[in-house]
Structure formats: structure tokens, C-alpha cells
Recover the amino acids of this structure.
């Protein structure tokens, strides 16, 4: 158990420190005892983007004793309209390092641990086991399923949220034997991850969802109110409407997760054209990965060494993540190595069904 | 004949072009699966998307429908 600050052990001791939580201690459901629970709580925020930033900010301000922050990404200028912990000067810096410093400046009484790494099959369960509650601020299905499965194995609840343009979804999973994310969405066959970078999002939307995630987290810590589990809340900021959908625990799904080793969800991708030969010049970790005998995979950095692997007797369609590297690769291979059969197919999205 | 109110969310509403509509079904074709098949025929692009189906605000993929039921097509979102 974490050492309590002295003012929580004797409320009269330090009115200055106590004052910062005065407005929430005044709530009869919180009080000194509730503030103590908040101080003892350990919350892991996975993904410090549009959802994770406001969530972590409110949890730190409320006095959550230990916040873990995990994200492998760096701050990009396009993040600033919605990821409110970061400023212009932070562009290029690791998100969790910046977030830790901002949150510690906000509240010096709490402990913040930053993990500059992705959540993986290898680290997920052990990391989650160190915390009481997980808050999912990620932007892709693979990590959402990984969080769900690891939380189930570590027996921890997680507050999930996700957004699409002007709409958001919110639910608490794995709470006191309640349903998991897979009970709601058992499987999917997505050709892409439709994240914010590609689809666009109104900056305030993840702010709304992220603060709701923080509210559900605090309710669980304090053991007050009705936690949103077994229910999916849909929010639409354009229509200013919401809807709550009920769903149940599926023992079949729970059993499946518990009986197999933790694994990454496979995103099944189908090519639009069944008879073309493709050259994928992306790095091996880029998603979605396409396993198909029509696709030759050589990252841009290895092209010069692996020229032999590129067919010369038929048309080859070159693609990458956005279309930038594929264009350069076609120009390079054509000009420097005499290929006359290469065509730029652009982004991975454009060749998938 | 039977009137069913259908609501579409996220990318599904972009395919259908409306966020809700009333569909008239034959009373004999009254299961959720039949309705899903009907919608897939009307909007073939829905077939490329993942979604769950809720009947009267509850996830239920294998339910018989009744007059004035409300059915929602819910795609998972990935954004954060």
C-alpha cells in the first residue's frame, strides 16, 4: 500500500494541502475517506492521445496516487487540436515524458510513471497487474483487443472509449464479472483501423469521452454511483444525442480468451484485385499487415540489397502506408536500376477491399 | 406487413446516407437476420464493415422482430 500524505491521516494537520481537494471532499459520497481511496488508487492510462490526455489530467487533478502512462509515440503538430497536455514546444518529444512533466507540475503529491513503449503481448499482463484500473485511450482495434484480453487475464476492469468523427462510444469492461469487449464485439473484419489521422475528428469529442472515462474511473475507485458496465453509451455531438445499448457477458468469449495464449488480433485484409502482383515497401511493423502470395514485402531501406526479389517480367504495383514512399520507390527503382514494369499504387488503403 | 425503425451509426450511416429510417418488412420475414440480409441487399457496402445489431436498445443477433421494434446497427469505433 502506498504511504499516505500526512494530511490524510490527520485532516487538521495541513489545511493548505487539504484545500486543493476541498470541493470534492465536500461531496458527502467522497469525504476524507473517499479522498484517501483516490490517493491509494493506481490507474494505468494506455495511449496518451485525444482520450488519454484529458482523462489523465482530471485523474491527476483529483489526486489519483499513482498514474501509469504508456505510449510509444511522439507529439506531432496535428495532435495539438485535441491532445491538450501538449504545447507547440513539445513537438517531437515522447508523449508520456511530456505528459508526466505536465501532470507533476499540476499535482506534485502524486506519482506518475511513464513508459515510452508500446503495449505488447509480452508486457501487457504484467504491466496491467501492477494497477487497479486501466483506461483505454488507444486508437486501434488490435490494441483494444489486447487490452481487453490482458485485463481479463489480470482480472482488472478497464474503461473503454473510442471515437469516429462526431460520435463516441463508452463502456466499462471486465468490471466485477461483467462483460468484456469481446462480448460486445466478438470479431471484426476490418480493412483498416480508421483512426483519427485518416478520418478527421472534432477536437472536443475525445475531450468529452476522455473526461467521461475519468468519471467512470473515479466512480469505481470511490465505489459510488452506477458504473457503466454491460452498457454501451453512444454519443453524437452533432445531433447532441445519446443512446445506451445493453449487452451481456458471453461465457463462450470469456472461455476463449482464458484458454489461449495472449495474442494479437489478426486484421484480415482482402486485396481488391486478385491477379495483380504488389510490392509492399512499408516497414514490417506497419499495420495492417497483408499476408498474401500476391504481395512481395521489401521495406524501402532494404530495396537496394533485395532487387532480385522484384519480378521484371510482369507489372508490379508498389504501395506503402500513405503513398509517399511508394512514389519515391518507383522513381528510384526505375531511374537507378532500370525497372520498366513498376507502377505506383499509392496507399495500402487504396488497394484493399 | 410490419414497420421497423432502423438506426445507423458511424461509418454505416455514411453508407446508408441516413441516420435512421422506417423499413417495411413482410411479417413472415421477421428475424434480425432477415432484416440484416435485407439491409445488406439495400446497402451492399455495409458488408465491408463490422457491426453489432441491437433490438430495442439491447444487443441481440437472434431475435424475432415485432411491429414498431427499433433496430440499431452499431459499428465498433477505433479512434482515440
Amino acid at each position: 500500500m502506498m504511504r499516505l500524505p500526512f494530511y490524510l491521516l490527520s485532516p487538521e494537520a495541513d489545511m493548505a494541502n487539504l484545500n486543493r481537494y476541498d470541493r470534492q471532499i465536500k461531496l458527502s459520497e467522497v469525504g476524507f475517506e473517499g479522498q484517501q481511496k483516490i490517493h491509494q488508487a493506481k490507474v494505468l492510462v494506455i495511449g496518451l492521445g485525444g482520450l488519454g490526455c484529458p482523462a489523465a489530467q482530471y485523474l491527476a487533478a483529483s489526486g489519483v496516487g499513482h498514474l501509469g502512462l504508456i505510449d510509444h509515440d511522439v507529439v506531432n503538430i496535428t495532435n495539438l487540436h485535441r491532445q491538450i497536455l501538449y504545447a507547440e514546444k513539445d513537438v517531437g518529444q515522447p508523449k508520456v515524458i511530456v505528459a508526466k512533466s505536465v501532470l507533476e507540475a499540476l499535482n506534485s503529491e502524486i506519482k506518475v510513471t511513464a513508459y515510452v513503449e508500446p503495449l505488447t503481448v509480452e508486457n501487457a499482463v504484467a504491466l496491467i497487474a501492477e494497477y487497479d484500473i486501466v483506461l483505454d485511450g488507444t486508437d486501434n482495434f488490435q490494441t483494444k483487443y489486447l487490452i481487453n484480453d490482458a485485463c481479463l487475464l489480470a482480472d482488472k476492469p478497464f474503461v473503454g472509449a473510442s471515437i469516429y468523427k462526431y460520435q463516441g462510444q463508452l463502456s466499462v469492461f471486465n468490471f466485477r464479472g461483467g462483460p468484456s469487449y469481446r462480448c460486445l464485439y466478438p470479431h471484426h473484419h476490418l480493412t483498416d483501423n480508421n483512426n483519427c489521422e485518416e478520418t478527421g475528428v472534432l477536437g472536443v469529442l475525445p475531450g468529452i469521452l476522455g473526461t467521461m472515462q475519468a468519471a467512470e474511473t473515479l466512480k469505481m475507485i470511490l465505489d459510488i454511483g452506477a458504473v457503466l458496465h454491460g452498457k454501451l453509451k453512444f454519443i453524437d455531438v452533432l445531433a447532441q444525442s445519446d443512446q445506451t445499448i445493453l449487452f451481456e457477458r458471453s461465457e463462450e468469449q470469456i472461455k476463449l480468451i482464458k484458454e489461449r495464449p495472449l495474442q494479437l488480433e489478426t486484421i484480415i485484409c482482402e486485396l481488391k484485385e486478385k491477379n495483380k502482383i504488389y510490392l509492399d515497401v512499408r516497414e514490417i511493423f506497419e499495420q495492417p499487415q497483408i499476408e498474401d502470395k500476391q504481395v512481395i514485402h521489401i521495406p524501402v531501406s532494404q530495396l537496394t540489397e533485395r532487387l532480385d526479389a522484384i519480378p521484371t517480367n510482369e507489372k508490379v504495383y508498389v504501395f506503402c502506408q500513405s503513398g509517399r514512399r511508394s512514389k519515391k520507390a518507383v522513381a528510384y527503382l526505375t531511374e537507378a536500376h532500370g525497372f520498366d514494369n513498376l507502377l505506383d499504387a499509392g496507399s495500402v488503403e487504396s488497394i484493399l477491399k | 406487413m410490419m414497420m421497423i425503425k432502423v438506426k445507423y451509426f458511424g461509418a454505416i450511416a455514411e453508407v446508408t446516407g441516413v441516420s435512421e429510417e422506417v423499413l417495411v418488412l413482410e411479417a413472415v420475414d421477421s428475424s434480425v437476420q432477415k432484416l440484416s440480409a435485407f439491409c445488406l441487399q439495400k446497402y451492399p457496402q455495409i458488408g465491408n464493415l463490422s457491426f453489432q445489431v441491437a433490438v430495442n436498445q439491447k444487443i441481440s443477433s437472434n431475435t424475432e422482430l415485432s411491429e414498431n421494434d427499433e433496430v440499431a446497427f452499431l459499428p465498433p469505433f477505433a479512434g482515440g
About this structure: Chain B touches chain A at residues 7, 9-11, 19, 48-50, 52, 54, 57-59, 72, 74-80 (CB under 8 Å). The two ends of chain B are 42 Å apart (CA to CA). Chain B has one domain: 2-74.
